[in-house]
Amino acid sequence: MRWALFLVLLLLGCQEKKERPKVNVKELVGIRGCPYCHDMRRPLLGPSFLDISKRYGPEDLERIKESILKGSRGRWGEVAMPPQKVTEEEAELIAEWILELKKQERRGSGR
């Protein structure tokens, strides 16, 4: 009986990990209130999402994620960004989305 239980647990552990569900990140950004301070192309209280994307690269993913989760000060002027009420996974999705904007901008402009 123990062997059967062990075998079942072993097989369950070997199953493929599920991919994270597809999330409409732009919708998530809206739900979390980011557009109150950030616009897609022009600065509001904070920099535009496109300006953030242009300043940082893929190596800065964790830095952007931490800014979303913990807030930041002094990177874009005097106005501080307070910590946001998002999960760690949501912060990572938003940071990835922001970094992707630079690539989308290049494709859209024909470069």
Describe the structure in your own words:
- This protein is mainly α.
- It is 52% helix and 0% strand.
- The N and C termini lie far apart (64 Å).
- 16% of the residues are buried.
Descriptive tags:
111 residues, 0% strand, mainly alpha, globular, Cytochrome Bc1 Complex, Chain D, domain 2
What fold name goes in the CATH topology slot?
A: Cytochrome Bc1 Complex, Chain D, domain 2
Q: Please, what is the average pLDDT?
A: 85
Low-confidence parts: none
Relevant CATH superfamily: Cytochrome c-like domain
Extended strand count: 0
Architecture in CATH? Orthogonal Bundle
- Total count of helical runs of at least 4 residues: 5
Note the overall shape: globular
CATH class: Mainly Alpha
Question: What is the helix content?
Answer: 40-55%
Blueprint of the fold:
Layout: H1 2-14, H2 25-31, H3 49-55, H4 61-70, H5 88-108
Helix pairs in contact: 2-5, 3-5, 4-5
Short description:
By secondary structure, the protein is an all-alpha fold. The protein has helices at residues 2-14, 25-31, 49-55, 61-70, 88-108.
